[in-house]
Design goal:
alpha+beta, Rossmann fold, 23 strands, binds adenosine-5'-triphosphate
Length: 468
C-alpha cells in the first residue's frame, strides 16, 4: 500500500497559504462562520469535505486511544476510558484550576490604529497601518504598557445577569476530566496507571485570532489525562511524548514538517513544577515556515489539578487515591497529551496540498488514506446504456462500509479533477466493458495509473488500500 508517509511530501515552505485557503473555500473544506454577514473573527465552519476530514481525524484519535489503546511499556494495552463533560461548569472549577486568576495574555493597545496585540508576539505581528512594519515599529504607533486580558468567555446562567450567575465557556476540556476523576475511579474498574480521554469544544477569547483556523476562538481539543504514581512520572512522560509524536506521523504528517520540541524552563505553564517535562509536537505550517506551530502539548501536570480541586471543594486529603494493593494513599500525578482537532485538520490539509501543473485541476490533495474525506468515487462513463444503473448499484453496495460519492455529471476528466481536489484516493468507472465482463476501471489519485478490477472485488480492493 502506498501512503503519504512513505512518499516525500513537498516542502511546506514553498506552499502558498492563500492558495490552500482558496481551495478550502472553493471545495467546501472550511468557510468563515456567518460568512453572509461578513463573518466573525476567529470562528470557522467546516463544509461537507471538511466535516468528514475533521471527523476522520477525531475518529482516528478515538480509535487509537479509547477503542484500541496502545500497549504500555509492559506490552499490555493501556487502560483508558472516555468521558463527555459539559462546556459550562460550576465557575468554582476555574478558580481551582487557576484560570480565573491566571489565564491571561499580556496585551498592548495601539492608541493610533486601535489594534490590540499580544505583548509577547509583537515581533511576529504586522502593523495594521503599514504591514511591511511590525507592530509598534511604525513612527505613528502609540503602544500602551502591557495589560492583562482574561481569555475566558463569560456568560450567565439563568434569568438574572449578576455576578452570582456568571459562568464561563470552558477554555480547555481537561478540567471536566479532573473534576470527574473520583466518579470514574468509583464506577469503573480502572486503577493507576490509567487514562481518561475526551474530545470536545473549548473556547478562548484569543486577542489576535489569525492564521486561518490555527488560532481560533472556538476550537476542539482531544485530551488525555493519564494518572500515574508520582515516582513514575519521568517514564510515563517520555512514553506519551514519543507515542503521540509517532501517532501524528502515522496519520500522514511524516517527514521534516513535524518535530518534537522540549520546552525551555521559562516556557513552562502555570501548573508546572520544577523539573517537570513539557514538550510540544509541532508542525511546519506554510505561515510559520521555516518555523513551526504547536499541534499538541505533552505535559507533566504533576498533582496540581487533583489537589487543587480536592482543596477547593473542602475535602482535601480525604480525596487522595487509595492504592489497595500497596495500602498507599496519594494524589496521582498526571501526564497530559492535549491536541487540537482543528490545528490537526489544518496540518493534514497543508500536508496534503500538492500542486501539479500537469493535471487539469493543477493541484491535488494527497491525504493519507485514513484521513481522506471521500475514500472512493463511482462514475458511469456516460449517462446511458445501462451504465448509471450498474454504477448506482455499486455505490449502494460499498457506501455501507466506506464514505463514497456517486457522480454522473460532466465529462469524466472534470469528475476526476473534482476528486483530485477533494483528495479521493480511488475513482471507479463503469464503462461499456463492464456490461460484458463485469470489470470497472480504477484510477489511482497519486500515480494516475488505471487498472481493471472485477466489480465484485471493489470493496476488497478498497479494504486493502484504505482500511475498513
Ligand atoms: P498556544 O501557545 O498556541 O496558544 P497553548 O499552549 O495555549 O497554545 P494548550 O493550552 O496546550 O495550547 O492547548 C492544547 C491544544 O489545543 C494546542 O496544542 C492546540 O492544538 C489547541 N489549541 C489551543 N488554543 C487554540 C486556538 N486558539 N485555536 C485552535 N486550537 C487551539
Amino acid at each position: 500500500m502506498s501512503t503519504q508517509t512513505e512518499q516525500n511530501a513537498p516542502s511546506n515552505s514553498t506552499k502558498s497559504m492563500d492558495d490552500i485557503v482558496a481551495l478550502c473555500r472553493r471545495r467546501g473544506f472550511i468557510w468563515q462562520s456567518s460568512e453572509i454577514y461578513g463573518g466573525i473573527n476567529g470562528f470557522w465552519d467546516y463544509g461537507p469535505l471538511g466535516a468528514e476530514l475533521k471527523r476522520n481525524l477525531k475518529n482516528a484519535w478515538w480509535q487509537d486511544i479509547v477503542t484500541c489503546p496502545p500497549d504500555g511499556p509492559d506490552g499490555h494495552p493501556l487502560s483508558i476510558v472516555p468521558v463527555d463533560c459539559t462546556i459550562i461548569m460550576n465557575p468554582t472549577v476555574w478558580e481551582a484550576s487557576g484560570h480565573v486568576g491566571g489565564f491571561n495574555d499580556p496585551m498592548v493597545d495601539c492608541k493610533e490604529c486601535k489594534a490590540r496585540f499580544r505583548a509577547d508576539h509583537l515581533a511576529d505581528l504586522e502593523c495594521p497601518l503599514k504591514p511591511s512594519k511590525k507592530a509598534g515599529e511604525h513612527s505613528a504607533c502609540k503602544l500602551t504598557e502591557p495589560r492583562e486580558f482574561n481569555l475566558m468567555f463569560e456568560t450567565y446562567c439563568g434569568a438574572i445577569r449578576d455576578e452570582d450567575a456568571k459562568t464561563y465557556l470552558r477554555p480547555e476540556t481537561a478540567q471536566g476530566i479532573f473534576t470527574q476523576f473520583w466518579n470514574v475511579v468509583d464506577t469503573s474498574r480502572v486503577r493507576v496507571p490509567f487514562g481518561i480521554a475526551q474530545i470536545g469544544k473549548a473556547f478562548r477569547n484569543e486577542v489576535t485570532p489569525r492564521n486561518f483556523t490555527f488560532r481560533s476562538r472556538e476550537f476542539e481539543q482531544m485530551e488525555i489525562e493519564f494518572f500515574i504514581h508520582p515516582d513514575e512520572a519521568e517514564q510515563w512522560y517520555r512514553y506519551w511524548r514519543d507515542s503521540r509524536y509517532a501517532w501524528w506521523q502515522a496519520i500522514g504528517l511524516a517527514g521534516n514538517n513535524l518535530q518534537l520540541r522540549e520546552h525551555d524552563k521559562d516556557e513552562l505553564a502555570h501548573y508546572a513544577q520544577e523539573g517537570a517535562g513539557t514538550s510540544d509536537i509541532e508542525y511546519r505550517f506554510p505561515f510559520t515556515a521555516p518555523g513551526f506551530g504547536e499541534l499538541e502539548g505533552v505535559a507533566h501536570r504533576a498533582d496540581f489539578d487533583l489537589k487543587a480541586h480536592a482543596a477547593q471543594c473542602g475535602k482535601g486529603d480525604k480525596m487522595r487515591y487509595f492504592d489497595q494493593a500497596n495500602n498507599d494513599r496519594y494524589f496521582p500525578h498526571v501526564i497530559e497529551p492535549s491536541g487540537g482537532a482543528d490545528r490537526g485538520t489544518l496540518a493534514v490539509l497543508c500536508e496534503a496540498y500538492t500542486p501539479d501543473p500537469d493535471r487539469p485541476s493543477k493541484v491535488y490533495m494527497k491525504f493519507h488514506p485514513r484521513m481522506a474525506p471521500i475514500k472512493a468515487a463511482i462514475f458511469p462513463l456516460v449517462n446511458k446504456d445501462g451504465m448509471p444503473e450498474v454504477a448506482e448499484k455499486l455505490y449502494k453496495d460499498i457506501r455501507r462500509e466506506f464514505v463514497v460519492q456517486f457522480d454522473v455529471k460532466q465529462n469524466i476528466g472534470k469528475r476526476y479533477a473534482r476528486m483530485d481536489e477533494a483528495g479521493t484516493p480511488y475513482c471507479f468507472t463503469v464503462d461499456s466493458d463492464t456490461l460484458s465482463d463485469q470489470t470497472v476501471t480504477v484510477r489511482d489519485r497519486d500515480t494516475l495509473s488505471q487498472e481493471r478490477v472485477n466489480i465484485e472485488k471493489v470493496s476488497e480492493y478498497l479494504r486493502e488500500r484504505v482500511g475498513g
